[in-house]
């Protein structure tokens, strides 16, 4: 490419960098820097975060563990976890609904798991599903460090597609009053339909879905709004540490099979 042609494209490149600078910064922090640190340390980001928690958080104190994770993500390495703003929405809904059983798809590092567990009613339980064994091992240690035993929080390692059909027979889950979808948005619709097909959603059940605007779950939202079995509400938020990038949590209320 000649210098003249390169110079002609320069204003366009600068304009795009300025307009999408928040997305560019997010890309650098979540992909480039993270990959480099993974290679240098031999550890995944979740394992590095847990090491920080071990040396800075108070065992048996979920609030302090959550605050420590937030601090590490903001000042050390970006963790891509739910964060306190979305966390307040989640905890408020769990407290309002007082579910007897919660199902979380996508444990990740265990952050949202702790948010739910700390506001569960006495005698309620949480089943959380994580497909990656290495990430699940970190989450398991974090959950137990916070003081929650297996009677309150059960972590299941496996893909949601394989776990959902086995929940009734293998985990004694006949129905779930509240579901958090926090794994990969492209699987939200598939897993919602699996929950319906296996009759795990009673009438009045609440389904919460994170990241429905960024990276987005358009097919999931379209289905929820058009199938006639859900009342839908969208809680508008931003991405943690990148408020200019708009995101949201979808809140669905199941009306029954119809």
TrEMBL record:
Recite the UniProt keywords alphabetically: Catecholamine metabolism, Endoplasmic reticulum, Hearing, Membrane, Methyltransferase, Neurotransmitter degradation, S-adenosyl-L-methionine, Transferase, Transmembrane
| Chemical reaction(s) catalysed | a catechol + S-adenosyl-L-methionine = a guaiacol + S-adenosyl-L-homocysteine + H(+)
The places in or outside the cell where this protein is found are: Endoplasmic reticulum
Q: Does the keyword Transferase apply?
A: yes
Q: Just give the chief location class.
A: endoplasmic reticulum
Query: What does the record give as EC number?
Result: 2.1.1.6
User: Could you tell me one molecular function GO term of this UniProt entry?
Assistant: catechol O-methyltransferase activity
For this chain, the family text in UniProt reads:
Belongs to the class I-like SAM-binding methyltransferase superfamily. Cation-dependent O-methyltransferase family.
Q: What does this protein do?
A: Catalyzes the O-methylation, and thereby the inactivation, of catecholamine neurotransmitters and catechol hormones. Required for auditory function. Component of the cochlear hair cell's mechanotransduction (MET) machinery. Involved in the assembly of the asymmetric tip-link MET complex. Required for transportation of TMC1 and TMC2 proteins into the mechanically sensitive stereocilia of the hair cells. The function in MET is independent of the enzymatic activity.
Report what the protein is called.
Answer: catechol O-methyltransferase
What is the organism of origin for this protein?
Fukomys damarensis (Damaraland mole rat)
Its lineage opens with: Eukaryota, Metazoa, Chordata, Craniata, Vertebrata
């Amino acid at each position: 490419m000649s210098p003249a042609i390169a110079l002609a494209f320069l204003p366009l490149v600068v304009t795009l960098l300025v307009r999408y600078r928040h997305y560019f910064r997010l890309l650098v922090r979540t992909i480039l820097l993270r990959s480099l640190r993974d290679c240098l340390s031999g550890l995944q980001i979740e394992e590095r975060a847990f090491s920080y928690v071990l040396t800075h958080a108070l065992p048996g104190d979920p609030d302090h563990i959550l605050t420590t994770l937030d601090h590490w993500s903001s000042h050390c390495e970006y963790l891509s976890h739910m964060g306190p703003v979305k966390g307040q929405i989640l905890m408020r809904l769990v407290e309002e609904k007082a579910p007897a059983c919660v199902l979380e798809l996508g444990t990740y590092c265990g952050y949202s798991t702790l948010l739910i567990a700390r506001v569960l009613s006495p005698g309620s339980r949480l089943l959380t599903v994580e497909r990656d064994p290495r990430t699940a091992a970190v989450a398991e240690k974090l959950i137990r460090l916070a003081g929650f035993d297996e009677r309150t929080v059960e972590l299941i390692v496996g893909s949601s597609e394989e776990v959902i059909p086995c929940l009734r027979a293998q985990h004694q889950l006949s129905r779930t009053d509240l579901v958090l979808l926090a794994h990969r948005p492209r699987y939200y619709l598939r897993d919602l339909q699996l929950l319906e097909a296996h009759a795990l959603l009673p009438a009045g059940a609440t389904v919460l879905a994170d990241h429905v605007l960024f990276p987005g779950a358009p097919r999931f939202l379209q289905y929820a709004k058009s199938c006639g079995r859900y009342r839908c509400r969208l809680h508008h938020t931003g991405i943690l540490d990148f408020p200019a990038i708009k995101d949201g949590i979808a809140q669905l209320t199941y009306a029954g099979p119809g």
